[in-house]
């Protein structure tokens, strides 16, 4: 199933999503990164943005300053795994519904998606030149003293299709692939003449 | 040949932006080869998107990936080359910082404890500059590698012991690929260092990970391992982005060094699919840019 979403989204919207569905986003998308979340959740800093019902993407973009605004140069996606422990507070305290990233999140995030109503959308890491063509503008920025790990407000059009890789029903493509790969370990080692 | 350090600075600046924008032909061919052999429909689509991204970057003259990486410069000084060594390092450092400012791309470099970003892609010990020598007459090679952090964060060293033999090396590589999953932005080049001291072993793994596809380890024993391990890691089904498929790695590259009678070290360092590098060769007749 494919969904076209323009956030803010309701819990019902994201609970429809199942692993392997695809989503294309339009409108507002927030960019967030390691330092942004360390400052928000470990050091008590607040953002003036209302993230309720919104999607965030794990990114620290390349930008150009023109006057007092930023223009996107290259907007890509970073590895999500480092930000695993921020999934729950992002959802609980800020009402975030969708997290976009690469490489996946872990069991605790999957639980948070189930309990609070959220999902993880996989984007192709390293395909930033293409991703940038889906970003129309940088509308605003907060916590910019953390530049480039500021909290970015992008306006996007046709952002996707992104694959639903973790849903609110306890399913994760990463967990599936991980379990399948570990099952193939003995075969790979046997091909190398290693006894297990 | 006397090297003009102003030209080195310019080259260091140009190489960084070239590396960020243009993927080497051997990596493009690697993508075509993987896409042709991929049997998983989702993985094939994903490889298609990665290939499209390379074209979009070229057409829009944009960066391939947002991660501008940790800048590494590998210098190879040939015979008969005269230069001021300290001046060379300073010229590279200046060129690296100018590239970031003049092309307005992201500085990804921070102090390790204060996390302060000088917005210059430089800092203590960065750019990383490796200096080596070659027997080529009147040639200076400058190679630039922006090493992405997704793959760099997945680096491992195991000080195995002689009694564990080559099996320990093979098992370690397979387990590292499993542990990395999608975090390293597969398909990857898996770089394996075998032998040396702990630091040399890790350095060899990095050299292996950043070597051109289609090149082989000069040590026949290392080359044998490369072939066997390339087959084995691609049996694991990790696939592009860790979402399943045949295309886990373009190749496993191995570099070896002699080691101590009591030691059996193995290190793994990976290069993501945005396997970027750029090269300038200085000769008496001029400077040639390539990969």
Short description:
Chain A has helices spanning 11-15, 34-41, 87-94, 107-116, 128-132, 173-183, 185-191; strands at 2-5, 22-32, 55-58, 62-66, 69-74, 98-101, 119-122, 135-142, 151-166.
Question: If you had to describe this structure to a student in words, what would you say it looks like?
Answer:
With 196 residues, chain A is an alpha/beta fold. Chain A has a single domain (2-191), classed as fumarase, CATH 3.20.130. Chain A is 28% helix and 32% strand. In chain A, strands 2-3-6-7-9 form a 5-stranded mixed barrel. In chain A, helix 1 links the parallel strand 1 and strand 2 (22-32). In chain A, helix 3 runs parallel beside helix 4 (107-116). The longest helix of chain A has 11 residues, at 173-183. The radius of gyration of chain A is 18 Å and the shape is globular. The model of chain A has no long low-confidence stretch (mean pLDDT 97). Chain B is of the alpha+beta class and 291 residues long. Chain B has 2 domains: 5-20 and 64-148 and 276-290, 60s Ribosomal Protein L30, Chain: A, CATH 3.30.1330; 149-271, no CATH class. Helices cover 39% and strands 24% of the residues of chain B. In chain B, helix 4 (85-102) links the parallel strand 1 and strand 2. In chain B, helix 1 (5-21) packs across helix 4, helix 2 (25-37) runs antiparallel to helix 3 (41-60) and helix 6 crosses helix 8 (220-233). Chain B is globular, with a radius of gyration of 19 Å. Chains A and B meet through strand 4, helix 5, helix 6 and helix 7 of A and helix 3, helix 6 and helix 8 of B.
